[in-house]
Each structure stands twice: as C-alpha cells, then as structure tokens.
Amino acid sequence: MSYPVSLPSNNPIITLTHPTPIVWVLELHNGQDSRINATLIDKALQPALNIVERDWRERWRTARNTKDKEGGRGTLVIVGKRGQNKFFSNGLELDKIMSDPHSARIFTPLIQNPFLRRLLTFPIPTVAAINGHCFAAAMIVALCCDYRVMTDGSSRNAWMCMSEIHFGAAYPISFAAIIRAKVPDPRTQRKVALEGHRFTPPEAFEAGLVDYLVKGDTEAVIAKAQAVGESVAHLAVAGAWGVIKRDLYRDALEAAARDDLLQTIDSDDAAAKARL
Questions:
Q1: Which value, to the nearest 10 degrees, does the dihedral of the CA atoms of residues 103, 105, 106, 109 take?
Q2: Beta partners for residue 128, in sequence order
Q3: Sheet strand arrangement including 133-135
Q4: How far, in Å, CA of 76 to CA of 255, rounded?
Q5: pLDDT tens track for 131-148
Q6: How far are the Cα atoms of 40, 51, 145, 265 from residue 101, in angstroms, in the given order?
Q7: What mean pLDDT comes out for the span 253-258?
Q8: In whole angstroms, what is the distance from residue 172 CA to residue 114 CA?
Q9: DSSP letter string, 175-195
Q10: Which Pfam families match (predicted)?
Q11: What is the DSSP letter of 4?
Q12: Percent of the chain scored above 90 by pLDDT?
C-alpha cells in the first residue's frame, strides 16, 4: 500500500498516513468541522480501517511465523482536520441524514453501528487525538477509542459534549451502551447524557473522559497521541487486543446490534398517546 491514502478517491474527506512502521494516522476533513455522515463512514472510514487492519495483520502474521516479538506492533490515531485547531468533529450531519427517509432509517443499524462496533474492538490500540470541539456522535467515536488525548484548551475553547438533550434528539441504543461502558460513574453519566454538559478539557480529564491533556496546536496533540499509542503498541503483538475487547465491551456490542430504528421524540410521544 502506498501512503498517503485519500478516501473516497473522487472527493477525499479523510487522509490516512503511515508515518512510522507501527503508526497509522487517520485525519478527518469532511469540511472544516468533520461532520459524520453515511459517505464518511461507508466510503472513507470503513475502507481506511480495512487498509490499516490488512497492513497490520500481514505484518503480524509474518512476525508470528518468524517468532519476531516486535513485528506485530501497531497503533491507530484518529484526529480532526490538520491545519485547524477548532474541531475534532461536530458530530452527525443530521440535516443530510434526515433529508432522505430511507437513508435515515438505515443509517443507525446498517451504517453507524457497524462502524462503532468495529472501532470499539479494533485489533490494535486506538487513540483519539481530540484537537478541538468534540460533539455528540463524535464524542461517541472518541469514546470507542482505547485512549483519548485532548488539547488543554489554554489557547482556544474546546468542549466535549453530548448535545442531543438540548435539541430534543433521542439516543440510539448504541450511544447509551457505549456511554455506560466507557463512563461508569452514574453522576458523570447523568452530566453527559441528561444535562448535556459542555466539558472543558480540564473537566473532561477530571471526569475520566480523556486520558491526557496537551498544550499546543493540532500537531502537538497528534504527537502526544502517537506517543501514547506507541507506548502500548507492543500489546498488539500477541493478537489478543481486539479479542479481549469483544468480551470487555460485550454489553455495548450486543446493544448496538439490537438497534433497529432511531427513536424520535415524536414517535415516543405517539406511543405515550396510544398508551395513556
């Protein structure tokens, strides 16, 4: 594979690089704020994960056959658009998703959830390099990563927030399950899900939502995320990293597989009207 890889090739919205033999960096650049939609997931993110996993597994198999204890190392860093320091991602591109009723019905169960399940159980350590605001579905993507490195917010605002409560959007089952898996404290769950609190970087660190804070621009966040990934990359050598996560996050994975249609406020009210 020749890097960098831009996907999709006709209108790139992600770029995948391979700066060292054990590090892959996936950069989101669907516009300035890297909104998430079906095209981003199906035509860019999933193919990028295919490339990374295929490359890593080829090296891992070779290392396993030759008893090379270092050859199976690997880590993936996911970052918002380089060259700006404002957004990791602004979440779902809801207007585009909801504009097509058929697409809206299949987006959660057939597009979004398979990606979240795959990221949650990816076979090498994953690190979210949160270089700016991280809202809604983007926060779920970051939580699906194994580690989170965030700008410290000293030079610009940067918030983590599940903002759905503020505009009346219900969660897919998968979102709630991932929050429960990655945010075990019920008080923090309440703050995240029911209050839609905008966590500053220090608050996110104190709550355990992120693992490291970094002073500096996007490149500084990437450098720290890469260092974090490299520090645990050797743990992928045995081949059990993703296998263990499938058991560790079994409840979230099974919940995501149960998601059918995204419940809306209107459907909830209609059901209550029929019941009461």
A1: 150
A2: 78, 148
A3: 87-89, 133-135, 160-161
A4: 25
A5: 999 999 999 999 999 999
A6: 18, 31, 30, 16
A7: 90
A8: 13
A9: HHHHHHHH---HHHHIIIIIS
A10: ECH_1
A11: -
A12: 80
**pTM greater than 0.90:** yes
Nearest in space to 146 (alpha carbons), one of 210, 201, 87, 60: 210
Complete domains list, the chain, with CATH? 5-275 (3.90.226.10)
- CB-CB contact of 122 with 115 (8 Å): no
Least confident of 74-78, 102-106, 165-169: 102-106
In sequence order, the 6+-apart residues with CB closer than 8 A to the CB of 60 are 71, 72, 74, 236, 237, 239
- Kindly report the number of other CB atoms within 10 A of residue 203's CB atom: 16
Using alpha carbons, select from 196, 199, 215 the residue that is nearest to residue 207: 199
CB contact at 8 A, 13 and 44 = yes
> Is residue 260's pLDDT more than 70?
no
**CB of 17 within 8 A of CB of 27?**
yes
C-alpha angle 28-31-33 in degrees, rounded to nearest 5: 70
Supply the pLDDT for residue 96: 80
pLDDT at 263: 57
* Radius of gyration in angstroms for the set of CA atoms belonging to the chain, rounded to a whole number: 18
Specify the residue for token string 């410290």: 152
Mean pLDDT of the chain: 93
